[in-house]
Amino acid sequence: MTSRALQSLLELLDLERIEQDIFRGASRPAVVPRVFGGQVAAQALVAAGRTVPEGRDAHSLHAYFLRVGDPGAPIVYQVDRIRDGRSFTTRRVVAVQHGQPIFHLSASFQTYEDGLDHQEPMPPAPDPETLPTSEELLLQHRDRFPGPSVVERLLEARAAVDLRYVGAPPFLAAGNGPSEPRSQVWFRTNGKLADDPLLHVCLATYVSDMTLLDSVLLAHGRGGWAVGDVVGASLDHAMWFHRPFRADEWLLYDQQSPSASGGRGLGTARIHTQDGRLAVSVIQEGVVRVPRD
Predict the structure, then answer these.
(1) Does residue 284 carry a catalytic annotation?
(2) 234 belongs to the catalytic site
(3) DSSP β-ladder status, 88-97 and 16-19
(4) Catalytic residue among 234, 255, 256, 257
């Protein structure tokens, strides 16, 4: 059964086609007063995918966040059909608000073919069913945040997804000093999805922007933007989709940070299915700044 929150998210991703290669999507506020980056990335991938020949699945995306999105205005997605080859299709998407580009995506799609196959082993992680939900943690530790409205916005932003931290999230680890720059979460949608492979890829893209820079925060004992001890935003985002997966089944998001400098932090990650298949690789750099007094 699909939850009301998940149904709302699916409606957000169901773009309106206003011209052959032009789409329009709704917006909604994130935890901070701007459009959530994962929403724009997922919507852009939907726009690209709807112009691709049948039978070609997304295998990579590369994106830049250019400007802050206005949650009170729709976003127009303009798709450029860069190439349709025998095996690969390439699309470029520009997201526009108020006459200015706010996001740029390049995505590649491929027909299925057999080939060499190997992968890194899945790292150890506990059974997700034994872990508390993100909702339980937020409600139990609401005193960690500046006010109740912040917790309410966090709960609303994550209501469509069952997100479970393996270790302490940054908002609980804040003030304890630096720790290993690594974070793991299990996630799946709060309800079943249709079998469309593009939909599952887009849902994973949406979730991938939620926690990827947590490992940067843990390395410096910071709680995050919602706690208020750092300010930040996503700068760029890249994903490679290696093997089929379902976003409505448990996925392990194993994240780490190899570097932070110059007001930026880098997060790298692997997404594994519960049975150990490497499904997705992710890299993101974001602005991570300590607020001035």
Answers:
(1) yes
(2) yes
(3) unpaired
(4) 234
Catalytic (active site) residue 70: no
Could you say which of 39, 108, 257, 284 is catalytic? Answer: 284
Q: Which position among 209, 214, 229, 254 bears the catalytic label?
A: 209
The length of the chain in residues reads 293
Output the pTM of the full model: 0.95
What is d(CA 43, CA 76) in angstroms, rounded to the nearest whole number? 10
Tens digits of pLDDT across the chain (293 residues): 678 999 999 999 999 999 999 999 998 877 677 899 999 999 999 999 999 999 999 999 999 999 999 999 999 999 999 999 999 999 999 999 999 999 999 999 999 999 999 999 999 999 999 999 999 999 998 888 888 888 888 888 889 999 999 999 998 888 788 999 999 999 999 999 999 999 999 999 999 999 999 999 999 999 888 888 898 889 999 999 999 999 999 999 999 999 999 999 999 999 999 999 999 999 999 999 988 76
Contact 215, 222 (CB under 8 A): no
